[in-house]
Specification:
The protein is built from eleven helices and eight strands. The chain is globular, with a radius of gyration of 17 Å. It is of the alpha/beta class. The protein has an eight-stranded parallel β-barrel, surrounded by five helices. Bound molecules: 1,3-dihydroxyacetonephosphate. 1,3-dihydroxyacetonephosphate is lined by residues 12, 96, 168, 173-174, 210-213, 231-235.
Length: 252
């Protein structure tokens, strides 16, 4: 059965890049972005404007890695959704596990950030995922469901249908230990069912998998019915690898 959801592949560059590396990377990706797939890159803040220029005509969208829940003012170091929009972003990651862990972002703050993004007209990519302890303790589905539910509570059902969800098990991020396609599918189906039961139009919500996605494992992940694309860290920094993941999404 053909999915109603268009595949989405997002490169999260994290704190990597530089003006010349960015240019080389986008140059390498240009020309190999397949039809029928949404492709987005999320560089660090200082490079957003540069990368906006680089991706012109390449069929690649621009996203940021975080945003403030506030509209503007005396908040040193923070960046408002309207500023991201102003430099050409259409997407923004919210609640990445590295933000949750290293910057103490809780479900409430994450929900406020998702709301701020939607308010400004950006598409938020809400990142959720359990730690290894939580998985080993049998709490993975409860933890992830609570992370999603906290956002549904703040946004409401209609707005939630506009959010992209990215399931990124913390134990799979940057470790080379990918969730198996079956493990990921179980969680994706659980997230979609949770949304449906809450009353959200869940069939249209794209749910991405993230965590050690590479050109070698992308196709088997994309073959799963509830995996609608990928949020790619390390492998998005190499043009060939990222292009291959995009091609696998197009072929799925
Ligand atoms: P890796 O693909 O490097 O495991 O990172 C995943 C991730 O955190 C993407 O947001």
């Amino acid at each position: 059965m053909l999915s109603v959801r268009k595949k989405l592949v997002v490169g999260n560059w994290k704190m990597n890049g530089g003006q010349s590396q960015n240019a080389a990377l986008i140059d390498g990706v240009r020309g190999s972005v397949p039809e029928g797939v949404d492709v987005v890159v999320c560089p660090p803040y200082p490079y957003l404007a540069q990368v906006k220029t680089l991706v012109a005509g390449a069929g690649v969208g621009l996203g940021a890695q975080d945003l403030s829940p506030r509209k503007g003012g005396a908040f040193t170091g923070d960046v408002a959704a309207s500023m991201l929009l102003d430099v050409g972003c259409e997407w923004v990651l919210v609640g990445h596990s590295e933000r949750r862990t290293l910057h103490g972002e809780d479900n409430r703050l994450v929900a406020e950030k998702v709301a701020a993004a939607l308010d400004a007209g950006l598409t938020p990519i809400l990142c959720v995922g359990e730690t290894l302890d939580e998985r080993d303790g049998g709490r993975a589905e409860a933890v992830v469901s609570a992370q999603v539910a906290a956002v549904v509570d703040v946004l409401g059902l209609v707005a939630m249908a506009k959010v992209v969800v990215a399931y990124e098990p913390v134990w799979a991020i940057g470790t080379g230990r990918t969730a198996t396609p079956e493990q990921a599918e179980v969680m994706h189906a659980c997230i979609r069912e949770g949304l449906r039961v809450a009353g959200v139009a869940a069939d249209g919500v794209r749910i991405l998998y993230g965590g050690s996605v590479t050109a070698a494992n992308a196709a088997s992940l994309f073959a799963m019915p509830d995996i609608d694309g990928a949020l790619v860290g390390g492998a998005s920094l190499v043009a060939d690898g990222f292009s291959s993941i995009c091609a696998a999404a197009a072929a799925s």
